[in-house]
TrEMBL record:
InterPro entries: YtcA
Pfam families: Ytca (PF17090)
Keyword Transmembrane: yes
Bilayer disposition of the protein: Multi-pass membrane protein
Transmembrane parts of this sequence: 33-56, 68-88
The protein's name: Uncharacterized protein YtcA
Sequence similarity: Belongs to the YtcA family.
Subcellular location: Membrane
Amino acid sequence: MKPLPTLRKTATACFLALTLTACDPMLSLQGSFWPAWIICIMTGLATSMLLMWQLIRLRLAPHLGPPLLIAPSLWALCSFTIWLLFYAR
């Protein structure tokens, strides 16, 4: 008889999903409201492209590993760092 812990986990996940959905900060850009995570993703993409360009220019990119793994990881790192710097409370 182990369904009780599973039910408790499911109920907790549903409760958190319902109560934390309104915690997304909104930004007003030119009168249009944008979720902050979209801004972080876009600025993270631009930052990671700039960093990748610098790594290629300095001839360090071949030493990092496969670009198909490095570029998205760099994008995620930049996006999460921007989120933590500007929106974490």
